[in-house]
């Protein structure tokens, strides 16, 4: 694969996921960034916005779209991805990886792919359907909470073991809310603070339910999710529990077996903490049998495995590259 | 009450709860600190340990116990309070407020008081049994998580409404773990980090269950509790939900009615956040009907309403002072 | 003084200093809040903005100014205070405490008071000129960095000891920049981050120089100030050093003597840290003779001794109340 | 260089710098970790200590030293490196990179190399003496503050421009103090806190002075350094200023010229902030002419360019690898 070089374009490159994608692609051994499109920052160097890239690249934000690319990453906001594809005439050969929720599975869709804007989109969770992704042309990249919760529950759904209510609580860092300024992103407010939001009504439940229901035959029980905003910047940690008859050993065997060929999912035998995965593309899982419940702790970096890292993982699969190419990242650890 | 001055002694004054108690009592209009006992710091000024008290007091830690006090606060560790009372000959007239778990309700005890070390201890949650506290001689001060969760559920238990499983997640700041140095209290580890612990097995569940079962006739359902360590110093925020047929309006009416005469419990009509209560003795509650569930968010400062503030509230009740005396604290807010 | 009750009005009550003033005045034994004016929030309860005040007051923001007050606090932005006084017809009997920089000493002013808007303003640093404040009708409350740096240097200036360059570095928390949203107040940016700004050119140098030059006969040397933004919400810590022939003992004697009658300035014999003063009105000083230099560390809570707390201290002086009334605050400590 | 693979051993691998070195070497294209020695953790997997490495390596800590390595990194504490070399019989062919201060330039040494334990040690600051490093056998890796301050001042010293006092303030994150538990590393203490320490007396001044005096002919003026502990984990930011007659343009030209061939030193035209370099091996510099002063802001990640990253950079130079090999790291950015 040494000689392969994928030409990538980024649309909406001035936001957090666009910046993170740049950080990855600039160091990727088999990819190069052909252009970074931004309406708001066109003409300025990308390091004026993503200031850590000073010294790494002289790329400037563009206001026109080049068609001579192999893959296009859409890093625009929810709703804007659909608008973009409706408005643009793209070469049909260009593969698309969309990081918004516009083409993800949702409650109203029942098929295996989402057909929209004249394209079939495959839901891009490699640990669910790597083969489908490898064959796909257009990818809908999963949501961050959705990734952490699905990876916690996939093996149970596959074994038809989700029969009783699932209870999930999860905490997200501030980058999950993007770079727009808001009351809950103000440092003076968020520092040392905790709050919950959208309790039992988070929008990612749609794609989570769609995935899990697609895997198991019996009807999916309710999934109750309490999301929290936490005083940190990167990462998501979720705790899920449900009644389950598996012993500790059986549960561990099931999860090890399910994820044995998936390099980014790691099962920890000891109690983990979020910073083990921060600044990596890993998902760390921990299993605990407590009374009649199985407790699954899952954690990811929301900007990597929860967004741009998973997008690169999908790119690697789309183009037959090694799945971990460009994603062997040094954890920040502290 | 202007002329009343309660003479208070503190045992175990070099820890976090001892220091917080000093901060409160030094400013209390009807109390004075007679002595602060500490084995480890005896002879040194209290401001050498609680450095924010520099300029506020010249008290020194003592290694002998004065008997000429009206009330004794025990701020020693779990287990050490019982040992202390077994070893000491105290004047029977001295009232005792113990902040450890040694004399709290527990699973093995079924009566209304805990009799231990030759004394009857009343569980000191004023919003549960203010009258019993006013008549008591010895108080077992509740745990921090136990306070936050009980205050969320008391009105439901009183109305016999806890019939289905209760699911609770909660996040605590670092001061809850005290001042001893440990891996999870290291700044480099905890900053920006999240972890869960004692999932479905936290020790405070005993006192929570004992209280709630004592209030309602039907058998108490299981209470599933997921505790988290968060990257902040002060405060606890919990989210509890259970199936409940009350409408939003009925739930609010029930809680407003239950807490109408309790000045420290505030019901918020809008989504709250932890820093509304940090550095105060308040408990803030928020109610949300979601589908078949009632969701209750509750939050306290773990060192105040969850420990030393509640201890002073109990002292006020024991001595017939105004319940809020010395506890009208300026929130830090940021 | 038990019977005294000052009627206070607040203009610009929806900002950080306005909120902090409310937190203080609502608990002040000799003051009551007559009204809180806010253009942006008029008609809404103050707890809708300052959410920690929920349960403490039912005051609403007003859009008209009542004249039946004893003192008016101006908490509006720099420039807006002057505009306000030019536009309003206020009863001459109303005392004014302005928290902006509009009426502070500045480079262009040489007299002992600032005359502007038809009024004489006295610079409200009690540790510099308590008697002048007690006689004053209008107060210009000092800036936050200016307070921390002046309190570090006043005793030296009084003794004519500032003859060589003074070098100051200082770090401020995020509340110093107010509640407006900006790139440097975004949580994702500021968390774990450090930056300097206005190096050698901070605007508070004007009032610092004016004070110090007014105290000593010889010409004031240059004062070089490097300000930093730090990842915390409350507080300012400054380190100042200059060549000085005083021994350690002489320096300590000088500072103890200068501040002996000033209850909020505390001199620490051991190395201090910022959280000793957070959520208090104290200024903590530490002295260190190093080679030919005297090093002075000073620290305050920027919203209290650096803004609203000092404003209340000035109110106490204006009305002959005890200087510490309403300002014996529990430190948050953690 | 594709085929080159350096065999590296790590002594003292259970600490912060040892862990960071592992994170780098495990992903390095031209290196492999032969063994990781630790007295305290021998026999345990390295991921038991450096938990983010779970899934990356099955290496275990060893208690014996293998001699079949090309390079040995010493990550033990100050003093222990010297003891180690005195006690061990090492193959003379093994290159050594020591991260302690034991073999750095110090006040008592005047030569170009430090001869100790029968070996010549070259001070490993590549931007000072890359050629000497390339020829060396033993490297003394510079201190973290020393790196940040030297990189700020090297071009001035080279031009003989340090003639007037230099004033430096700098803030370090908690990982600079290592993983041992102490009062100032307790989360409850350090969160939201600031303190200074070793004011005007930091031990890194020795190596800074030695380097700078070695570069310029005139006598080096005094360097006054005020270090701070900040509430963050990674990074050092320093502000240095001294009287200098260079214009802004001349200063920028000088620095650009000095660092043009040094890939890790970046000169920023706009005001920088620490997180631009966190989790990278970069040093970011910013220049500002203010009145008669030149102000230089410099920042590094203390564990990377300030320790283990610089150690790998030195390894690359020792073995003729590309200087940036294994060090093109994704910034954490948030």
From TrEMBL, chains A, B, C, D:
NCBIfam families on file: argC
Subcellular localization(s) per the UniProt record: Cytoplasm
Function: Catalyzes the NADPH-dependent reduction of N-acetyl-5-glutamyl phosphate to yield N-acetyl-L-glutamate 5-semialdehyde.
This protein's pathway: Amino-acid biosynthesis; L-arginine biosynthesis; N(2)-acetyl-L-ornithine from L-glutamate: step 3/4
GO biological process: one example: L-arginine biosynthetic process
Keyword presence, Iron: no
One function term, GO molecular function aspect: N-acetyl-gamma-glutamyl-phosphate reductase activity
Record domain Semialdehyde dehydrogenase NAD-binding: where: 7-136
Catalysis: reaction(s): N-acetyl-L-glutamate 5-semialdehyde + phosphate + NADP(+) = N-acetyl-L-glutamyl 5-phosphate + NADPH + H(+)
Name of the protein this chain belongs to: N-acetyl-gamma-glutamyl-phosphate reductase
Ranges in a coiled coil: none
Family: Belongs to the NAGSA dehydrogenase family. Type 1 subfamily.
SMART domains: Semialdhyde_dh
UniProt keyword terms in alphabetical order: Amino-acid biosynthesis, Arginine biosynthesis, Cytoplasm, NADP, Oxidoreductase
Known EC number: 1.2.1.38
Record-linked SUPFAM superfamilies: Glyceraldehyde-3-phosphate dehydrogenase-like, C-terminal domain, NAD(P)-binding Rossmann-fold domains
Main location: cytoplasm
InterPro entries referenced in this protein's UniProt entry, alphabetically: AGPR (IPR050085), AGPR_AS (IPR023013), AGPR_dimerisation_dom (IPR058924), AGPR_type-1 (IPR000706), NAD(P)-bd_dom_sf (IPR036291), Semialdehyde_DH_NAD-bd (IPR000534)
Listed transmembrane segments: none
Lineage: Bacteria, Pseudomonadati, Bacteroidota, Cytophagia, Cytophagales
Presence of keyword Transport: no
Active site feature: 144
């Amino acid at each position: 694969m040494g000689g392969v070089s994928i030409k990538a374009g980024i649309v909406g490159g001035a936001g957090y996921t666009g910046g993170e994608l740049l950080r990855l692609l600039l160091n990727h051994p088999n990819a190069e960034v052909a252009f970074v499109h931004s309406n708001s920052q066109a003409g300025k160097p990308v390091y004026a916005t993503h200031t850590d890239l000073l010294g790494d690249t002289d790329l400037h934000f563009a206001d026109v779209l080049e068609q001579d690319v192999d893959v296009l990453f859409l890093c625009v906001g929810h709703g804007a991805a659909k608008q973009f594809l409706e408005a643009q005439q793209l070469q049909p050969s260009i593969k698309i990886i969309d990081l918004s929720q516009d083409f993800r599975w949702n409650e109203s869709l029942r098929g295996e792919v989402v057909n929209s804007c004249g394209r079939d989109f495959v839901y891009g969770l490699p640990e669910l359907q790597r083969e489908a992704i490898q064959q796909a042309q257009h990818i809908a990249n999963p949501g961050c909470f959705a990734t952490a919760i699905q990876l916690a529950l996939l093996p149970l759904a596959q074994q038809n073991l989700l029969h009783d209510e699932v209870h999930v609580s999860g905490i997200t860092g501030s980058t999950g809310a993007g770079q727009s300024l808001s009351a809950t992103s103000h440092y003076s407010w968020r520092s040392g603070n905790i709050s919950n939001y959208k309790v039992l009504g988070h929008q990612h439940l749609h794609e989570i339910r769609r995935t899990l229901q697609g895997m198991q035959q019996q009807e999916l029980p309710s999934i109750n999710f309490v999301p929290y905003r936490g005083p940190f910047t990167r990462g998501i940690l979720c705790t899920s529990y449900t009644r389950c008859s598996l012993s500790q050993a059986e549960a561990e065997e099931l999860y090890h077996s399910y994820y044995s060929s998936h390099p980014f999912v790691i099962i920890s035998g000891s109690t983990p903490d979020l910073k083990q995965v921060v600044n990596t593309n890993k998902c760390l899982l921990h299993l605990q049998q407590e009374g009649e419940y199985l407790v699954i702790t899952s954690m990811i970096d929301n900007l990597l495995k929860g967004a741009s890292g998973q997008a690169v993982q999908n790119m690697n699969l789309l183009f037959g590259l090694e799945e971990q190419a460009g994603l062997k990242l040094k954890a920040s650890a502290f």
